[in-house]
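User: Second chain of the day. Same drill as before.
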Amino acid sequence: MQSSEVVPKGSHSHDKPEVFLEWKDLNFSVLEKNSAKRKFMAPVIEKKRILQNVNGHAKSGQLLAIMGATGCGKTSLLNVLAGRVGRSGMAAAELKGEVLVNGKSRDDKGFRRISAYVVQDDRLYPHLTVYETLHLASHFFLPTSVSDDKKEELVNSIIMELGLNKARDTIIGDERVRGVSGGERKRANIAVQLISNPKVLFMDEPTSGLDSFQAQSVMEAMKAVAANGRLVISVIHQPRSSIFKMFDDLLLLSLGRTIYFGKAAAAAAHFRTSANLTCPPLFNPSDFFLDILSPDFRTKAKEEFTLKRIADMADIWSRSEKKLIEDETLGRVYNELELVPDVPTCFEKFDSTRLVRNFKLLCWRAATEQLREIPTMVIKIVVTIIFALIIGGIFQNLGYEQAAISNRIGLLFLISINQGFVAVSGVLQVFPKEKVIVGRERSANAYDTLSYFAAKYLCELPLNLLPCTIFGCIVYWLVGLNPHRFGYFIAILMLEAITAVSLGLAVSAAAPNPEIAQALGPLPIILSLVFGGFFINIASLPIVANWLPYVSFLKWVFQSLSINEFTDVTFKCNLTPSTMCANTGEEVLNRLTFTSTLGESCFGLAMVFLGFTLLAFIILERSSISYIPMGYKGPKFNPNAIEK
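Assistant: Same format as last time:
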């Protein structure tokens, strides 16, 4: 039995102020290169109108569906209405028009606080259960004034409302880990957005990738959400007939133009009377609409015919639109409606209690994700042990002959490279894998960047410090390095590990996806390797490049390991003449031009660590999502460009 409420008792959604959303003359254009018309070294730039003079309105308690052929501008319209058109890639774009909330110009920031957006890509943390996911969301998105009991009640009511009770304690899962079904994952994603008790819910193709039964269950839940007093606006591609009957209002788009807007049940009659296009009996209306709205580019004749039909339908609607809209509820007196008050669904000013709690929750989430991915941890440790045994076997029992000097130097540099590569590659995919989820949470001010970064960093350290410690313990004694400085050796490897983790996180934060992160990862390692002091004497570098070794963490690691190994060590001289021998470790260090003390070298490595950590945080902070406002005109947009 499903609950009739999505919010706890005493905070019923139908007690909330009514939201009346209206949009007028929305126009969204971008400049694009036309590869078909391109001439040699002379690209042709054309203006593509994604939305053209789109009008409409919607109010609380309704389910509005936006439909149309692929590429008609459905998602773009949804983003504009939600105030969530990303600034990235919009340098050559223009957005014009007006969006009103209860008769007043929309305040984008305030509106985003009282609305929620369910993206098509339902990304959630795969190793958390449905309940854990919603429990975290309740603490992230709700203010501290809401008690833990109320948050628990809210979570349970949403689980019941969306039919997730059976999946409550099942992990979300992903393409690698088996979890809830596709429909349950979609509903869990919607449930996360409902936690903040939004007045308006935007959804981008919530039934995408689901079978008909799962799609039906998702839309039934959304119809119930609308019936509870919320405004639900959803882009949907090709719903089954039973889903189509759930829609209160329908907006049909084709090539960015409005073809129909009004009651969903009256859409078929509109096309029959205005365009002499009749939906066959017992035929799914959504299939019929897509048939007449889709341009056909298979032949020139079909292209011209379908484009003319679409243009005629758009012109018919444009002529009748004003009267039809006036016949609807736009004639209401706006003064009777209060502007929807700003509901602080997340903190707006510094709150130390919330800051500490969010940090603890973020640490718990990161640690739980790692601890439940046992195979990855086991494989990493097993590979470390195998590689340590191989290295230890090759270099075992080095001794203190003159030949052992070069072998020790080579071994120390090999250790530096190996541990650096392992630590960097281990964290390259940390941020790209979570970019969608974290970006969504940060855009809603669920938590600050510093809390997320610190929690993620701290939870990554044990997984990287443990392998380097195991590696050092095996190699050190198998090879027979300086027996009096083992503790310093392990400490240096740990400092290298956290420095490499910071470098890897900086690359990870800058990469838009895991593939690019993996491609970029080797670059800073190779640069650090070149200037690490093994392949070229640092003192012989040209003036323009003599600063590079100081930012090479491998240089500081290699130097620290060498100083640690060759301090207070003597070697046997078995060469002729004896002047070719290096009798002490200090002579070896002089040949390597390592004149610093161990403390100074470790301090240099610590400074590089702090620099990489700060760089990673700054990159992550600057990667936050920002949106363009209404009336935006990109610096590269040319309104006089040829229209496509």
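The longest helix spans residues 449-479.

User: Great, on to the next one.
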